[in-house]
UniProtKB/TrEMBL annotation, chain A:
Organism of derivation: Paenibacillus agaridevorans
Domain of life: Bacteria
SUPFAM superfamilies: MOP-like, P-loop containing nucleoside triphosphate hydrolases
A single GO molecular function term of this UniProt record: ABC-type transporter activity
One Pfam family hit: ABC_tran
Taxonomic placement: Bacteria, Bacillati, Bacillota, Bacilli, Bacillales
Annotated ranges, domain ABC transporter: 4-236
One GO process term, biological-process aspect: carbohydrate transport
Keyword Transport assigned: yes
Protein name per its UniProtKB record: Sugar ABC transporter ATP-binding protein
Protein keywords: ATP-binding, Nucleotide-binding, Transport
InterPro entries assigned: AAA+_ATPase, ABC_transporter-like_ATP-bd, ABC_transporter-like_CS, ABC_transpr_MalK-like, ABC_transpr_MalK/UgpC-like, Mo/tungstate-bd_C_term_dom, NA-bd_OB-fold, OB_MalK-like
GO cellular component, one term: ATP-binding cassette (ABC) transporter complex, substrate-binding subunit-containing
Gene3D superfamilies: 2.40.50.100, Nucleic acid-binding proteins, P-loop containing nucleotide triphosphate hydrolases
From TrEMBL, chain B:
Topology within the bilayer: Multi-pass membrane protein
Name of the protein in question: ABC transporter permease
Keyword Protein biosynthesis: no
Matches recorded under Pfam families: BPD_transp_1
SUPFAM superfamilies the record matches: MetI-like
GO-annotated biological processes: transmembrane transport
The entry's keywords: Cell membrane, Membrane, Transmembrane, Transmembrane helix, Transport
Top-level taxon: Bacteria
Positions of transmembrane segments: 91-115, 127-148, 160-181, 202-227, 264-284
InterPro entries per record: MetI-like, MetI-like_sf
Keyword Transport belongs to the record: yes
Family: Belongs to the binding-protein-dependent transport system permease family.
């Protein structure tokens, strides 16, 4: 059983007992692919290493299966780990690298041979078995590292940024490979990355962390469309979400509007209800809107009336099919609009941006928490 | 398109490299070749000296090359002890035993000491390491008396332990090994632990193979020290049977200072002393040079 439960797990370092991980509570289901994501130093790797047993747990309880494993050494936790720098034994050939764990477990020779061969077939590294790790490329080495983890048939895989050392093309390839392996083997996997694209594409659920604290645990879709706070909203998605400061005001007709520096944006009724519930009328809030819900085409203005802003186009970034427009709307950071590559525009010209306000998100200005939850 | 390539004049690789050198570089090469030939002189001298018959040994001015080489000196060396209780082979056996045992213990102890210092960072490891480094400051002569007291109180006089134990602590060895182990990524050791390895398995199967150049270097250093060591025979061995070959040689020459007799045997013995060092160095030189480049130690 590959179920992992973390109850109030904490990690403190050093003399001044600074928190690396604070009050971490999470249940990881058997067979789940969980991705932990966050900036560097957010505690995601520390958490993974605590699950692996490579790091002591300061307080809290950690269960793998139904067993409390706080004080169990790594080798008795029935886990396998893949590291960023592959960590292949340089003195052994690929066969021995994969067989090492099995040999230490004193498995019969013919079974070891069978397991190593079948694993290397799955990962297409059969032809390298008698080579040394230094004779392989980065992608091949990472395959070997995966093989070394798979061959032991553990109940949990832990992966610590396994694709960070690969080039962009190989990374995409290995990403699908790992997803395929997970589907095939159905083993619980905890995957740490700082790359939000990896997080979005690979995980059944994503844990977003910051300063050792969980910010949100949800499916990739929910993390993207309904983030719990401004950090999650800005961390997930490229280019990052646009934030606009504004004050919620009531019109004579009883409708709500967001008064920003340059314009008034109509707030749809569904959102207005939530904002009223949170008591944000006549208060300042932060509006968040992703670049795909902001339009520069003039015909969009008819579809979304009373939700326009004007600004100056600073930079137009052509990405192939898409183009990102960086518009100066008088705020500190430019407002990003996604449009098609055929869009006709010139830099330093005035531009009108139309927002699809039904897709907008609202955040508390002080606590940065989302106001989209009741 | 390939035609212009064909017209290029053929040259040996080495020759073309010489052509690429500037005049200054060529001068440097010539100078270095001369220097290395000069450095070779003692080796050539030892070889020839051992092969010179008596009448040539005392020729004035001395010659480098033996004019009529013979093995007469070696025969004499082995005959000297034929009438004494202890044959020369006993000294050689003692020396080999001591050298091999001390290579094994010194490399083993140094690596076992360096590994926790480098990777386990137990409380006070800095103090321990600093203390080990501090011992480098003491000249060997200053510790002779304490060393004698230790060996005597342990009751290991006239045993092989008396030869080996005073040699086991090699601070340079610990330092060198620690530098090497520092470079091993922690993930490598962690991954072995996750694979189910116990701490000693990690050390033996992962750490030692990776730091093999350092092991080889320490092995050579400790072999040379043990092989040429007279001190332990002098101080701790009263029993003639337990003394080593270098002691025997020094007794050959020093007891009969200015004596014409046995100079030939001494010359042969000097060659005998030198040859194992040479062989060991030649076998392991590539590893040693890798170590020197790696750690900046000579």
């Amino acid at each position: 059983m590959g179920r992992i439960v973390l109850k109030h797990v904490e990690k403190r370092y050093g003399k001044d007992k600074q928190y690396a991980v604070k009050d971490f509570n999470l249940e990881i289901e058997d067979g789940e692919f969980l991705v932990m994501v966050g900036g560097s130093g957010c505690g995601k790797s520390t958490t993974l290493r605590m699950i692996a047993g490579l790091e002591d747990i300061t307080s809290g309880e950690l269960y793998i299966g139904d067993k409390l494993v706080n004080h169990l050494p790594p080798k008795d936790r029935d886990i396998a780990m893949v590291f960023q720098n592959y960590a292949l034994y340089p003195n052994m050939n690929i066969y021995e690298n994969i067989a090492f764990g099995l040999r230490l477990r004193k498995e019969p020779k013919h079974e070891i041979d069978l397991s190593v061969k079948s694993t290397s077939r799955t990962l297409e590294i059969e032809q390298f078995l008698d080579r040394k790790p230094r004779q392989l490329s980065g992608g091949q080495r990472q395959r070997v590292a995966l093989g070394r983890a798979i061959v032991r048939k553990p109940s949990v895989f832990l992966m610590d940024e396994p694709l960070s050392n690969l080039d962009a093309k190989l990374r995409v390839q290995m990403r699908t490979e790992i997803i395929r392996l997970h589907k095939q083997l159905g083993v619980t996997t905890v995957y740490v990355t700082h790359d939000q694209v990896e997080a979005m594409t690979m995980g059944n659920r994503i844990v977003v962390m910051k300063d050792g604290v969980i910010q949100q645990v949800d499916s990739p879709r929910l993390i993207y469309s309904n983030p719990r706070n401004m950090f999650v909203a800005s961390f997930i998605g490229t280019p990052p979400i646009n934030f606009i400061d504004g004050k919620v005001v009531e019109t004579d007709g009883g409708k709500l509007q967001l008064q920003t520096q340059r314009s008034y944006l109509a707030i749809p009724d569904a959102h207005a209800e939530l904002l009223r519930k949170h008591g944000k009328v006549n208060r300042r809030v932060v509006l968040g809107i992703r670049c795909e819900y902001a339009h520069a085409e003039p015909e969009m203005a008819d579809r979304h009336p009373r939700s326009q802003m004007t600004g100056t186009l600073k930079v137009a970034e052509l990405m192939g099919a898409d183009m990102y427009l960086y518009v100066d709307i008088g705020a500190d950071t430019p407002f990003v609009v996604r449009t098609t590559s055929g869009f006709d525009c010139r830099e330093d010209e005035k531009i009108t941006v139309t927002l699809d306000m039904s897709k907008a998100l609202y955040f508390d200005k002080d606590t940065t928490a989302s106001l989209m939850y009741e | 398109m390939a035609m212009p390539l064909l017209r290029k004049p053929f040259r040996f690789k080495r020759q073309s490299r010489l052509h690429r050198m500037s005049r200054f570089e060529k001068a440097v090469v010539v100078l270095l070749v001369l220097f290395s030939a000069f450095m070779l002189l003692p080796l050539v001298y030892i070889f020839n000296h051992a092969l010179k018959p008596y009448e040539e040994l005392f020729i004035y001015p001395p010659t480098i090359w033996a004019r009529s080489p013979s093995l007469q000196n070696f025969v004499e060396l082995f005959n000297i002890t034929s009438d004494s209780v202890i044959p020369v082979t006993r000294y050689i056996f003692n020396s080999l035993t001591v050298a091999v045992l001390s290579v094994i213990t010194v490399t083993g102890v140094s690596a076992l000491c360096a590994y926790p210092l480098s990777k386990h960072k137990f409380p006070g490891y800095k103090l321990v390491f600093a203390t080990i480094m501090l011992t480098l400051l003491f000249a060997p002569e200053t510790v002779t008396i304490p060393r004698y007291l230790v060996v005597s109180n342990l009751g290991i006089m006239n045993t092989y332990w008396g030869h080996i134990l005073p040699m086991v602590a090699v601070p340079v060895g610990v330092f060198l090994m620690k530098q090497f182990i520092d470079q091993i990524p922690n993930e490598l050791l962690e991954s072995a632990r996750l694979d189910g390895a116990r701490e000693f398995t990690v050390f033996l199967r992962i750490v030692v193979p990776v730091i093999l150049p350092a092991v080889a270097t320490i092995g050579i250093i400790s072999f040379q020290t043990a092989w040429g060591n007279v001190e332990t025979s002098n101080l701790f061995m009263q029993d003639e049977q337990m003394k080593t070959f270098p002691f025997f040689i020094s007794s050959l020459t020093s007891n009969m200072a200015n004596n014409v007799a046995r100079q030939g045997a001494a010359a042969a013995a000097a060659l005998f002393m030198f040859i194992p060092n040479l062989i060991i160095f030649l076998v392991f030189q590539s590893k040693v040079i890798a170590t020197m480049a790696h750690s900046g130690i000579k």
